[in-house]
Structures are given as C-alpha cells and as structure tokens.
Amino acid sequence: MIDTTRATYRDVLREPVFRTLFLTRTLGTAASSLRILALSVLVFDRTGSPILTALTFAIGFVPQVVGGTLLGAAADRIPPRPLIATGFLLDAAAAAALALLAATLPVGASLGLLAVAAVFAPVFNGASARLVAEALTGDAYVLGRSLSSVASGGAQLLGLAFGGAVVAAAGPRWALLTAAGTAVAAAVWVRLGLPALAARPTGRGSAVHQSWHTTWQLLRDRPVRRLLLVQWLPPAFIAGAEALIVPYAADRGHGTGLAGVILACAPVGMVAGNVVYGRLVAPAARERLVAPVVVGLGAPLALLAAPVPAYAAMAVMLLAGAAFCYSLGVQRPFLDALSPDVRGQAFALQFTGLMTMQGVGPLVLGALAEQVSVGAAMAVAGAGTAAVGLWWWAAPARGAAVLPARAVS
After folding, report:
1. Which of 91, 116, 232, 288 is deepest in the core (most CB within 10 A)?
2. Listed residue (294, 308, 298) closest to 375, CA to CA
3. By C-alpha distance, which of 320, 317, 328 is closest to 275?
4. 283-307 per-position pLDDT tens digit
C-alpha cells in the first residue's frame, strides 16, 4: 500500500496489483485496437462502404451505456480476479469468432458481436479501477491513473501501427487471431498475477436494480455529477474535433498523409503532458489548475478556423493533447467523493460516460460541419471545451461529496 504526499512513477510500479493491472490493460488495449482495425479492413473489403467502416469504430461506444447503468454493480459484487480475466477472454472470443466467421457472417452480425462485447466493458473496467483505488492512495493513486492514461494512448498507437503491419503482411484474419491471442495472454496474466480478492458486500437485491439505483444516486449527488461532467465533456469535444481532421486536411490542401500526422500529434501530446505535469506539478497545484488547463485544452482549436499551415495544425493538436493532463487534478477529488462500497460502479459509470460521449461528440460535430465549414466546427469544439473550464471555475464544489453506503442498500 502506498500513501505518500508526493509519489513517483517508480513507486507506483512497485505495487504488484497495480503493475499487473497496468501491464495487462496495456495488452488488452493494444489487442482491441488491432481487432477494430482488422475488422474495419474486412468490412470495407466486403462492402466498400465508408459508413459501415466508420461504424466499426463507433459500435463499441454507445452499447456501453447499457452495461454501465444496468450491470455496473457487478464491479463490486463479483470477485475482481475472475471478473477481469473473463473480460479479456470475452474480447478474445469476439476476435476469434470474427476471424473464423467474418467471411460468412453478415456485416450486421459482425458489428452486433462487437456491440455485445462492449456492453460488458464498463463492468470489467470498473472492477480494475476499484482495485487500483484500493492498491494506491494519495498522490500515488493520481500518478497510477496518469500512467494508465499514458499506456492506453501508447497501446492504441502501437495496436494501430502493429495492426497495419500485420494486416498488410498476413491479412485481417490473422490480425484478428493475433488480437485474440494477445487478449488470452492478458487473461492468463491476470489469473496468475492478481491475488484472490473477495468481492465487497454491497447489499441485497438484483445486480440490475442495485446498478440502476446507485447510478441514479451518483448522478443526483451534485459534487459527484460535477466531477463526472468535467471528465466527460472535454474529451467529447476533442474527439469530435479529431474526427474532422481528415476533411479539415482536405479542405486546407494538406493531403491524407499529413492528416495522419496531425491526428497523431494529439496522443503524443497526451503522453508528454501527463508525464511532465505528473512529475513537475505538486498535487495541490494540479487540483487548483483544472479550470485554466481545460481552457487551454480547447482554446488553441480556434486557430483552426483560419487557414493556418499544416505545422500550426500539428502544434494545435499537440497542445490540445498535452492539456488532457487536467484530469490529474480531478482524480483524487473524484475518489474522495465516493464511498468504498460504490467505487467499482462509480468507476464503471465514469468509464461508460467517457466512452459514450466520445462516440456522441464526432456525430454532433460532424453534423455541424455539414452546415458550416469544417474549421468553424472545430473552433466550436474548442469553444465548448473552454466553456467547460470556465464553468468549473465559476461553480466550485460545495463541501464533501461522500456518497453514503445506504445508496446501495
């Protein structure tokens, strides 16, 4: 157990439970990115439809609303080791089934398989986040979440880059089988590397009733709702802006190749921002700086409404990605706002909202771009993000927000 005023990444990685969850989640994220890329290639080869291909990327977001709101209590009620391992095995089964059956399955059935797997994702992620909160305390917990974000961004880039190489060399079916094997390896690692921890006693009644009741209680609690919204809304706006990078580059005459470089600048900035901010800024200062950093996340996007050169667009996305470090100032207040009895479900709800909003953001900004210019739509995304920062500054939390255990009775 780590409990220090100022922790380091080395301290965090020494904790065996966190280290196991960190490494297996990185494997799982890379496998998921590889699976999505490979299936997208298969769908496009079969249909030639850009819309269905784009839907392959989006289908994993919205179904998580069901799992997060109706099944989130399972993150507290089921022992974490078998629950997390089952999550990786479910991902492996979906990838293997797509590899073996995608040639004969209708495209709708393939997408439906991804949607079913996505329903349960918040439960597995909620259980994992609960374990991290129990293994790390204080600043170590904040740095652990930072390290997880960095690894997630890196794993997505690695999965996409490696997936592109595998698809080019061996075809999408072998890429899907590789994703399945990677997920199985993560499940075995969890089984061998995590202790056999018990579930938390969380009251009586069905998991669905408890999940719905606790979700409602969490959303009704003003400080908790405020902490959830500041974690949901900026990523939604930025995801919408990122989804417009390809048409933006085309409008500006930058070309498809530079569009990929501009898009890659955001995760590179996110990794750098989290590492530098986590190492150099004191814990109390991170929490005080949430509002200005969120404003800094959105404000540079206003430049994209003007005909700026490609290198300026790269700098804007790099700065936007770096400013995602604002979340380091939110992690500890969010943890402190929760009773231990509902942490698993609260993290499942946080993950559900984050994924769902990142699916909704591109749809809304894409529709707006149809009515105005792409650059103007991206500027609106920046203004919306900056408005969230101003709202956070103007509406401070009122007292402690510890949800009582009776919320799950």
Report:
1. 91
2. 308
3. 328
4. 888 889 999 999 988 988 888 888 8
Distances (CA, A) of 174 to 114, 179, 318, 384, 402: 18, 9, 34, 42, 48
Residue type, 138: G
Angle at Cα 62 formed by Cα 187 and Cα 397, nearest 5°?
Answer: 95
Instruction: In whole angstroms, give the CA distance from residue 266 to residue 297.
Output: 11
Tokens of 86: 């089952």
307 burial class (0-12, 13-18, 19+ CB within 10 angstroms)? exposed
Work out whether strand 136-137 and strand 2-4 pair parallel, antiparallel, or are unpaired. Answer: parallel
The Cα 223–Cα 229 span in angstroms is 10
Burial 176-204 (b: 16+ CB within 10 A, else e): bbbbbebbbbbbebbbeebeeeebbebbe
Does pTM top 0.90 for this prediction?
Answer: no
Neighbours of 167 (CB within 10 A): 21
Looking at domain 221-397, its CATH superfamily turns out to be MFS general substrate transporter like domains (1.20.1250.20)
For domain 1-193, the CATH architecture is: Up-down Bundle (1.20)
Instruction: Give the tens place of pLDDT for each residue, 315-330.
Output: 988 898 888 889 889 9
| Whether residue 2 has pLDDT greater than 50 | no
Question: Structural domain boundaries of the chain?
Answer: 1-193, 221-397
Angle at CA of residue 202, ends 201 and 208, nearest 5°? 135
pLDDT tens sequence across 186-205: 999 999 988 877 666 555 56
Which tokens in the block code for residue 310? 């490609």
For the stretch 11-38, pLDDT in tens is 888 889 989 988 998 888 888 878 877 8
Identity of the amino acid at 269: G
| CATH topology identical between 1-193 and 221-397 | yes
Q: Which residue has the higher pLDDT, 7 or 277?
A: 277
The secondary element (H helix, E strand) that includes residue 2 is strand 2-4
